[in-house]
Specification:
This protein is α+β, with helices and mostly antiparallel strands. The protein has one domain: Double Stranded RNA Binding Domain. It has one helix and four strands; from the N terminus they run βββαβ.
């Protein structure tokens, strides 16, 4: 699954957002924010907690 990720930096904090799902995640580095966004996307696309969506199957097209 491929999603667009917009990455912004402000005051030492990074925010990664996914407009398709209208969600975002914060981190102290770009990598932390993108990893948190992947986990958030995975949570939103799973049908139930017992379904398995592999985290590495979520691909982000990162735009600054």
């Amino acid at each position: 699954m491929k999603y667009t990720a917009q990455l912004e930096s402000s005051d030492g904090e990074f925010v990664a957002s996914c407009p398709e799902l209208d969600i975002s995640a914060h981190g102290l580095s770009a990598d932390n924010a993108l990893d948190a966004l992947r986990r958030n996307i995975r949570f939103h696309v799973e049908l139930c907690p017992c379904s398995t969506v592999e985290e590495d199957s979520i691909e982000l097209d990162v735009r600054w």
